[in-house]
Every structure is written in structure tokens, then in C-alpha cells.
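Key result, reporting period 2: structure in, sequence out.
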């Protein structure tokens, strides 16, 4: 049952013309010893769709928490949606800020704790003190955007992993944020569920939302982002540019530990080629990057066999496609 809460007082809104995020020399240190970010300069305009790439430990999740105002920087200056993030993290105008910027954690169970999905999606608007009619409308809209209206009265523990991810996103969308921050949204999902979620994220970007998605799954990046920011293992920005240019830079991806060189020996012949970082983690290689060739013959669906028994040069693998039999979910022009 929805119970109306008191609406908190809010200060004056910042100018809408200000960029979404403006970071200068940002550092963040855990426990005064563990450096998570070390001199980040970053600007993100409203309406941009940005992928944040980096190996584990590069600071992606910490950066998202800073962008969401959960914590303030240890050093440097930072504004988000026209506000000083240090002030927001201290509670100043935080209610208004979190209506504009929402973070979806990698683990959806962090955001799903109520008796039903509907209650979880309603939690944020109720805490902001919105009238009940506004809350109901926001909840219905968020459930519809994530195509989970039929799950509204289910308990979160009854949901699959993919359904939990969509419910967690809906619990943020119900606040009507202009900016959505996503931390590894497709982690641990099966292929079909993954592409359904990628398609829904793509639609949010097409609808005008500012999206910042942290991931190291390179095959989803061309679909959800037009710009890529790469964090290096020194916890600084290693590269920043258009998606196609970043993903085509093999040496850059190797330096960022997003792919790695793999040495093969075939008798007297030795050659090396790149694999995604997860290639050996779960036994299932990720999709090839756009414009890259894969000379090895032990990966299904890469191309026609070469003239040297499957280890010759190949044509580039096409853009990743969702699996067949996806039911009534559509995958339109994003995959053309």
C-alpha cells in the first residue's frame, strides 16, 4: 500500500544550460591509503550516451558513485547538474539532485528490498514526498519502460537475474531522472536476457536521457554509447573519444587490459592475437570488436576458414546480433 510522505524543502534549481558533469583533477582515496581515482578530468554534456570502460580495479564504480553524489571527491573540483558534488554528498539539496541523477548498482539486490516489485519502484518517489497520484503514474510508467508491468506484484526474490536488473532500473526511472548511471548492467546475464536489456537501455538513450554505463563487455558498447571514456590501471583517463575510434584501437585496448595478447604455436609457426579479458574467465569468448579480424579457427561464427587450415586471415566479424528466438522483443535499427 502506498502511503504519502512529507515533501522535503528544495533550494533553487541550477540552470538547465549547465553540462551534466564537469570534473577537474578528481581524486578519491579509500581509508586514506587506497587510491581509487587519481586525477580525473572529464566533461559530459546533457543528452550524451557514454560508455565507461576499464579493467577491474580501474575505478569505474567509484567514479559512478561520485557522479551520483553518494560520496564527495578527496581532491579536485566537481560539479554535477550544476551543483557542487561535495555539498550534495553532505546532504545539501540532495533530494532534488537524486531526482535528476540516478544510479543502478551492479547487484540489483541492493535496490530491491520491499515485499513487491511495485513497492520497490514506488519507494523513491514516496521518499521524495510526491503526491500519491504522481507516484502511481511514475511507477506505472517505469514498469512499462522496462517491460515488467506483469511482474509488479511479484516478490523480488522470485525474479530471475535479468528481471531483477530491469526492476532495479525501474526503481530509479520512477524518479524521472535526466541522467542514468549504470554499473555493469549486463554482468552475469545469459545472452538472450543480455540483449533484451541492451535494447531497453538503447531506447532510454534515444529518448534523450544522459547515460553513463560502466562496463568491460565491449560488444554492447556500439549499441548503447556514442562516446567512450577509458580508465587505465593507473586510475586516470587513458582515452576519450568516439566509440568506433576507441574500439578500433587495438593497442589502446591492450594497454587498458580490456583485451590481451594470446600466443599460439602451430608447429614452427607462432602468432599472437587479442582476446577480450573475459575470454578465459567463463569459457565463452565475447564478440569480436568492429573492424577487427580474428585469425584463429577455434572460435565459432568468426568467418570462413582461411587457406592455412583455419588459421589464415579472415574477414572482420559483423556487428554482434542477438540470439535467435527472442520472442516478441524487437531489435530494430541498432543491429542493422
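The corresponding designed sequence is given below.
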Amino acid at each position: 500500500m502506498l502511503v504519502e510522505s512529507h515533501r522535503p524543502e528544495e533550494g533553487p534549481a541550477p540552470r538547465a544550460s549547465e553540462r551534466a558533469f564537469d570534473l577537474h583533477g578528481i581524486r578519491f582515496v579509500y581509508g586514506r591509503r587506497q587510491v581509487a581515482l587519481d586525477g580525473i578530468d572529464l566533461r559530459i554534456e546533457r543528452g550524451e550516451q557514454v560508455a565507461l570502460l576499464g579493467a577491474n580495479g580501474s575505478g569505474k564504480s567509484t567514479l559512478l558513485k561520485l557522479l551520483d553524489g553518494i560520496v564527495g571527491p578527496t581532491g579536485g573540483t566537481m560539479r554535477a547538474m550544476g551543483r557542487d558534488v561535495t555539498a550534495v554528498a553532505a546532504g545539501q539539496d540532495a533530494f532534488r539532485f537524486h531526482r535528476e541523477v540516478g544510479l543502478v548498482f551492479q547487484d540489483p539486490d541492493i535496490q530491491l528490498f520491499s515485499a513487491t516489485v511495485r513497492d520497490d519502484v514506488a519507494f523513491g518517489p514516496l521518499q521524495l514526498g510526491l503526491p500519491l497520484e504522481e507516484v502511481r503514474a511514475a511507477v506505472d510508467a517505469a514498469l512499462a519502460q522496462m517491460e515488467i508491468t506483469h511482474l509488479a506484484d511479484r516478490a523480488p526474490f522470485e525474479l530471475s537475474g535479468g528481471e531483477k536488473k530491469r526492476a532495479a532500473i525501474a526503481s530509479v526511472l520512477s524518479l524521472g531522472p535526466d541522467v542514468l548511471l549504470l554499473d555493469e548492467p549486463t554482468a552475469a546475464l545469459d545472452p538472450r536476457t543480455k540483449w533484451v536489456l541492451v535494447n531497453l537501455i538503447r531506447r532510454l538513450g534515444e529518448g534523450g536521457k544522459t547515460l553513463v554505463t560502466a562496463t568491460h563487455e565491449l560488444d554492447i558498447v556500439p549499441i548503447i554509447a556514442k562516446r567512450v571514456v577509458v580508465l587505465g590501471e593507473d586510475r586516470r583517463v587513458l582515452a576519450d573519444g568516439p566509440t568506433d575510434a576507441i574500439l578500433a584501437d587495438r593497442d589502446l585496448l591492450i594497454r587498458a587490459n580490456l583485451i590481451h595478447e594470446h600466443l599460439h604455436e602451430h608447429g614452427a609457426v607462432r602468432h599472437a592475437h587479442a582476446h577480450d579479458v573475459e575470454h578465459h574467465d567463463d569459457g565463452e569468448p565475447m564478440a569480436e570488436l568492429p573492424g577487427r579480424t580474428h585469425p584463429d579457427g577455434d572460435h565459432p561464427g568468426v568467418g570462413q576458414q582461411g587457406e592455412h587450415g583455419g588459421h589464415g586471415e579472415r574477414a572482420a566479424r559483423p556487428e554482434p546480433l542477438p540470439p535467435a528466438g527472442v520472442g516478441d522483443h524487437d531489435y530494430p535499427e541498432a543491429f542493422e
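Residues 191-206 form the longest helix (16 residues). Residues 218 and 289 are 7 Å apart (CA to CA). This case is discussed further under Risks and Mitigation.
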